[in-house]
Amino acid sequence: MHDIPERKARFTTKLVIGVLFMAFGVAFLLHNLNILDVDRSLRFWPLALVVLGLERLYTRGFLRATGGHMLIMLGIWLQLWCLEKDFLLDTWWPLGIVWLGLVISLRALWPKPKPEPIQDQEAFCQDSNERPL
After folding, report:
1. Is the Cβ–Cβ distance between 69 and 57 less than 8 Å?
2. What is the C-alpha separation between 5 and 18, in angstroms, rounded?
3. pTM reported for the whole predicted model
4. N or C, which end of the chain is more exposed by having fewer CB within 10 Å?
């Protein structure tokens, strides 16, 4: 019998982008069928950037995904602009700088852990005639 390696489902950027393409395609199809008004729905496209940023935070780790934080902030900024709530940005924009400073500071306090050294494979061989893989 053939042993097929087990594939684990992974939450990746490609998966998120694929799901976003499907969502936009369904939205345009529903628009063509006069079920959904895409003009009103497309005001929420910046949330796709927020979702991509959250995916990066999830896969790379909260402190290692500076690009994820920036995608989230850009998505929120564009979302407020698309909803014509950009007057909120006039007051609250410094919060984004504080957030990035917090992430950078936490990265400095908790540096990336060092990888464990790889043990010699020969130590695992029980028989002297076995070769390590």
Report:
1. yes
2. 24
3. 0.63
4. N
Which of 48, 47, 29 is closest to 38 using CA atoms? Answer: 29
Distance of CA 96 to the CA centre of its chain: 18
Q: Give the C-alpha separation, 47 to 72, whole Å.
A: 8
> What confidence tens digit (pLDDT) does each residue in 8-47 have?
667 677 887 888 889 889 988 998 999 888 888 788 889 9
Tally the residues of the chain: 133
Q: Do residues 73 and 102 make contact, with C-beta atoms less than 8 angstroms apart?
A: no
Reading the block at residue 61, the tokens are: 């780790």
Could you give the CA distance from residue 20 to residue 16 in angstroms, rounded to a whole number? 6
Q: How far apart, in whole angstroms, are the C-alpha atoms of residue 23 and residue 48? A: 10
Each residue of 52-76: pLDDT tens digit?
Answer: 899 888 888 888 787 888 899 999 9
Residue 9 tokens read as: 């489902």
Residue with tokens 């852990």: 113
Write down the pLDDT at residue 89: 81
In angstroms, the Cα distances linking 117 to 34, 114, 121 are: 61, 9, 12
